[in-house]
Design goal:
Elements (H helix, E strand, L loop, with lengths): L11 E8 L6 H10 L12 E10 L3 E10 L9 H5 L4 E7 L3 H5 L1 H12 L7 E7 L11 H11 L2 E4 L8 H12 L6 H10 L23
Parallel strand pairs: 1-3, 1-4, 4-5, 5-6
Antiparallel strand pairs: 2-3
Bound molecules: guanosine-5'-triphosphate (GTP) and magnesium ion.
The site of magnesium ion has 5 residues, from helix 1.
Length: 217
């Protein structure tokens, strides 16, 4: 009972909504973060899925992240506004090998703006390029990503749900930004180390791999 844990206040809760086209990897990202697993098999999200994960930010601050994993097919549907409502953070996710998934983020972001225009507090928006394990098949130039971030004041992230690369860091940075907590370099490096997948992360370029030419958007 005398544990210092007992003296902590209640957890902060943050609602994070994950948006983007079907197959860009939203569910994979959420499951990698919350359950540290990855499945190759695609199973379309119908409507919405939820994930909860408790993290600890510097200063021993416990934060529970509610991750709302929205199905890509919900765009244009009646429920999307309701899913977005009240979010403190929005993850706009695209697949770096799929131009269309990047271009369509404009439409997703327009829905976010429409829902939040009347709100007192605006959600933090993060642009997340997923599937960086497929860097050799990238079609969305990093420049384009950066420009989209600068124009709209998004935070910028590149991740791989498959290997786990930068996934924890992405959620940790978003939570810290929302709460106005600064992560120092050592803390960011630490979370990269702690959440590195064993065995299956091979940094690009893979040895012996021939770079593939693909059409850029
Ligand atoms: N190589 C690679 N494949 C990935 C990655 N993330 C997801 N995938 C694959 O991409 C496919 C789609 O992933 P999902 O996470 O189901 O996509 P989603 O965005 O949730 O799709 P909807 O539910 O339809 O909106 C699956 O076959 C995943 O295994 C990644 O980082 N790298
Ligand atoms: Mg899904």
């Amino acid at each position: 009972m005398s544990d210092s844990e007992e003296e902590e206040g209640p957890d902060r809760q943050l609602k994070l909504v994950v948006l983007g086209d079907g197959t860009c990897g939203k569910t994979s990202l959420a499951t990698r973060f919350a359950q540290e697993t990855f499945g190759k098999q695609y199973k379309q999200t119908i409507g919405l899925d939820f994930f909860l994960k408790r993290i600890i930010l510097p200063g021993n601050l416990n934060v529970t992240l509610q991750v709302w994993d929205v199905g890509g097919q919900t765009i244009g549907g009646k429920m999307l506004d309701k899913y977005i409502y009240g979010a403190q953070g929005i993850l706009l996710v695209y697949d770096i090998t799929n131009c269309q998934s990047f271009e369509n983020l404009e439409d997703w972001y327009n829905v976010v703006k429409k829902v939040t225009e009347e709100s007192e507090t605006q959600p933090l928006v993060a642009l997340v390029g997923n599937k960086i394990d497929l860097e050799h098949m990238r079609t969305v130039k990093v420049d384009k990503h950066q420009r989209f971030c600068q124009e709209n004041n998004f935070s910028s992230h590149f991740v791989s749900a498959k290997t786990g690369d930068s996934v924890f860091l992405c959620f940790q940075r978003i939570a810290a930004d929302i709460l106005g907590i600064k992560l120092n370099k050592a803390e960011m490096e630490q979370s990269q180390q702690n959440h590195k997948m064993e065995g299956d992360h091979v940094p690009w370029p893979h040895q012996g791999e021939v770079q593939q030419l693909s059409l850029n958007c």
